[in-house]
Here is the input.
Amino acid sequence: QSALTQPASVSGSPGQSITISCTGTGSDIGAYDYVSWYQQHPGKAPKLIIYDVTDRPSGVPARFSGSKSGNTASLTISGLQAEDEADYYCNSYRSTNTVVFGGGTKVTVL
Amino acid sequence: QVQLVQSGAEVLKPGASVRVSCKASGYTFTGYYIHWVRQAPGQGLEWMGRINPNSGATNFAQRFQGRVTLSSDMSIRTAYLGLSRLTSDDTAVYYCAKIPFPLEMDTNSPVFDYWGQGTLVTVSS
Here is the structure.
């Protein structure tokens, strides 16, 4: 069961915008609008920041946004802040009632 | 408030089995799927499976078929993950997580809004 493909690392300066990609196949990201994104700080449980491709849970800052085109979903962080330094994971529903995660992206704030 | 509280760390030998518990509070336990996700040291998240606490129906990632058991006890609002024939590759933090959408919505969206604190399972001889 292959994971979704994410870049290993992305970096940016405070105030800049960065985008993290998450590439799947026609059996997961391309077939369903069921992509979520999670932020994980070291030693902590993941935190939901985007669901159903573009929706943001209550309490998540508006600088986090999601999108999708074909088999690739993207998370954009606008106005990067120091506290955004963390690992980010995407996941998607995959046909036959399974779920697949991306390999994770380490975001560094320079 | 919603809480998922997991059992404590375990240290086991290769070939053994482990059971991790996840006690829910603050919501209707039988109304929402519970999923299990693990994370090996320094590695990414890996989905293992899910359980419908109302019916007991389960789905698993193919690589765990035959080795993982998911169950729940609605009387004590607790879900369980069992994993057998452990190897060092099973050393990981195991998380339970709930879905925010009620079962009757019948959605497959893998949205995990609340997570347990994680349970470290160490497999070592």
